[in-house]
Hints:
By secondary structure, the chain is α+β, with helices and mostly antiparallel strands. It has helices at 13-18, 23-26, 32-40, 88-104, 118-126; strands spanning 3-7, 46-53, 56-65, 72-79, 108-113, 130-136, 139-145. The protein has a single domain, classed as 3-Layer(aba) Sandwich (Aminopeptidase), CATH 3.40.630. The model has no long low-confidence stretch (mean pLDDT 96). It binds coenzyme A. Coenzyme A is lined by residues 21, 25, 28-29, 76-79, 84-90, 113, 117, 119-120, 122-123, 126.
Amino acid sequence: MTITLREINKDNWRTAAKLNLTEQQKTFIAPNWYSMLQVVYSGGELYDRGIYLDDEMIGYTMMGQDPANKRCYIDRFMIALEHQGKGHGRVAMHAIIDALKTRYNPDSIFITFEPENAIARKLYESLGFVDTGELDDGELVFRLPLTS
Ligand SMILES: CC(C)(COP(=O)(O)OP(=O)(O)OC[C@H]1O[C@@H](n2cnc3c(N)ncnc32)[C@H](O)[C@@H]1OP(=O)(O)O)[C@@H](O)C(=O)NCCC(=O)NCCS
C-alpha cells in the first residue's frame, strides 16, 4: 500500500469534496470544497493535492507560500474518517513535507491548528514541529525547522 499526492483535477475534485470527517473534526478544518475554491482564486499562491492510498483518494491537503513573508504553509490536511488511525496521516505528512521542500526549498514549514485539536498537535510534534507561540486567527502556529 502506497501513499502518494496527486493533482486535483476535473476527474477527482468531486471525490475530494465528499471526503468525510466527524462533526467535531469539521470544526477544525474548512470543507474541502471551500479549500478547492481558495486554490482556484489564490492566483497561484496556494495549491492542493489529493492524498491517495494506491488508487483511492483518502485525504486532501492544501499548501502554499505567503508572498508577504515567504513563509511556506501547510494550510489544510485531512484524512477521511474511515481511513483514520491507520498511519496514513503520518506517511502523508512526510510526503507533503517532501513536496514542499522540492517546490519552495524553504528553511522551515509552518502549520496552524485549533488549540483543541489534540490529535493534530501530537502528530505534528512527533514530526518535529515546534510551537512558535504565535496565534493566527485563534489557531496555534507551529514550525518545522529544516536543514538543507
Ligand atoms: C489529523 C489527521 C489528519 C490524522 O490522520 P490519521 O491518518 O488518523 O493519522 P495517523 O493514523 O497517521 O496517526 C498519526 C498520529 O496521530 C495521532 N492520532 C491519530 N489518531 C488518534 C486518535 N484517535 N487518538 C489519539 N491520537 C491519534 C497519534 O499521535 C498518531 O501517532 P502514532 O501512530 O504514533 O500513535 C486526522 O485525524 C484528520 O483528518 N483530522 C481532521 C482534520 C484535522 O484536524 N486536520 C488537521 C488540522 S488542519
